Amino acid sequence: MHASETDPVGGVGAGPRSASHPYAVIAAQRLLPVLRSPDADRAVRRTAALLAAGCRAVELTTSTPGWAGALARAAALTGADGRPALVGLGTVTTAAQAETALDAGAAFLVSPYPAPGVREVAARRDAVFLEGGFTPAEIATAVRADGAAKVFPAHVLGPGFLSSLAAVLPGALLVPTGGIRPAGVPDWLEAGAAAVGIGGGLPDDPAELAALFAALADRGELP
Fold it and tell me: In the annotation, is 208 catalytic?
């Protein structure tokens, strides 16, 4: 699923989205890096490296000590093309975390499971919220709310499960996350994922990292 200026991403319960909307950017790059860094400085450095490699949307997490400061610093970065980075925050489970993240400049929020408090903050502040779910009911509820859902932990049931979800949620933006390595991304895309969340296994070498994002954006395949 590719997003373009003439093919904005929408979904069940959501109208058309511009190509600069976080969902459109995530779908276009097809892989969403999820950074569980040991400290704030490492999170900012890794975000900068991903942006230099052609990535534009990156997810930091509340598991990183000092995440609010890291988020504020990372959100001020720009990509290789000079456009502003879209830095979101994952593992957001409370309204207080959501408020703090948005105040720090989060471009989107992500939860690992249904989080009504976060959903309320996102609705009130007109923020993008990729809500997590595991069961079909949880995922359908998230999709109805904003046209998208994080499927977590995706590796437990595999690409076949996602394919079944995609069949009954046409137009939904589904982002499987959890236990997926870069080599497995094409299988999930083929099953109907708009993009795949990756928390580990991304190359450290700048050239390899750039090749990975270029390959996914151009062909949906890994080099």
Answer: no
CB 66 within 8 A of CB 37: no
Residue range 35-86, pLDDT digits in tens:
999 999 999 999 999 999 999 999 999 999 999 999 999 999 998 889 999 9
What's the pTM?
0.90
- Check 59, 99, 190, 221 and give the catalytic one: 59
Nearby residues of 66 by Cβ (< 8 Å), 6 or more positions away: 39, 40
H or E element that contains 130: strand 129-130
Name the DSSP class of 64.
Answer: S
Spatial separation of the C-alpha atoms in residues 175 and 111, rounded to whole Å: 12
β-partners of residue 33 are: 198
Identify whether 5 is a catalytic site residue: no
Q: How far is Cα 128 from Cα 130, in angstroms, rounded to an integer?
A: 7
User: Of the residues 99, 131, 150, 208, which is catalytic?
Assistant: 150
DSSP 143-198: HHHHSEEEETTGGGTHHHHHHHHHHHSTT-EEEEBSS--GGGHHHHHHTT-S-EEE
List 130's β-bridge partners, or say none: 110
